[in-house]
Amino acid sequence: MLAAVLLISAVASTEAPERKVENNIIMSARDPEVRIGLPKSVRYVGADRWILYGIADCELHGFVDVDSNGKVERIYWVQFEGYIPEKPELKYQYTSPRRVTIGDMEFILDTGTRAKDEKARPGSDREHLNALIAAKGYKLPDGMIWARFVHLLDATKRRELMIIYAEDVAPTGFTANDLRENGKAREQWPAIASGMIERAKQRIEVR
């Protein structure tokens, strides 16, 4: 019963997003102290803050590039997240061995694809991001390729900065399913992913 009370208290105490956004620059005063700059072309779809799955304080900021018809071409998803004190046993665990540096920060890197018809988990951060995008009247493409960059703030592995960069898969000439493991164009994925990662590093400034 005590655990339930603590969880309800944590959920109820969710505050408004605290990071500031100005001229496509996210300014964070803590956890971590950082400025994240994005291209002038991107459109800010807004921010959300809530207790993710009842275990983590999550603050999400979403940006998109769209075409003349309002279809999303690129997504820039920036998230500040940390487990709540009532869950002291939890730590972030990532299995990817890949590392990349943006600015002076090291990030864990992984990549993948996603089809539009893949349903987001109820209550997930992706569901929250999709809602922000839809509220602006923008439409997601049939599939996207993505790179996820995760920076763990310290050795406790309880707080993270996550940046996800995603692109419409259509310019590759393939579908999201084509590029997956066992997909008909899987052998093309390493080169496609490598190009996407380089574009992300060029377009995202961390300082």
Short description:
The chain is of the alpha+beta class and 207 residues long.
Q: What does this protein structure show overall?
A:
Helix content is 18%, strand content 40%. It has 3 helices and 11 strands, in the order αββββββββαββαβ. It has helices at 2-12, 125-135, 189-203, and strands at residues 20-22, 25-29, 33-37, 43-52, 56-66, 72-83, 99-102, 105-115, 143-152, 159-168, 205-206. The strands form 2 sheets. It has a 7-stranded antiparallel sheet, with helices on both faces. The chain is globular and about 45 Å long.
Write the layout of secondary structure elements.
Elements: H1 2-12, E1 20-22, E2 25-29, E3 33-37, E4 43-52, E5 56-66, E6 72-83, E7 99-102, E8 105-115, H2 125-135, E9 143-152, E10 159-168, H3 189-203, E11 205-206
Antiparallel strand pairs: 1-2, 2-3, 3-11, 4-5, 5-6, 6-10, 7-8, 8-9, 9-10
Salient structural properties:
207 residues; four-stranded antiparallel beta sheet; globular; alpha+beta
Number of β-strand runs = 11
Instruction: List low-confidence stretches.
Output: 1-13
Helix content: 10-25%
Strand percent estimate: 35-45%
Helix and strand succession?
HEEEEEEEEHEEHE
> What's the main sheet like?
7 strands, antiparallel
| Domains (count) | 1
Mean pLDDT: 94
Helix segment tally: 3
- Rg over CA atoms, rounded to whole Å, is 17 Å
General shape: globular
Note the gap between the termini: 44 Å
Structure class: alpha+beta
Going across the major beta sheet, what is the strand order?
4-5-6-10-9-8-7
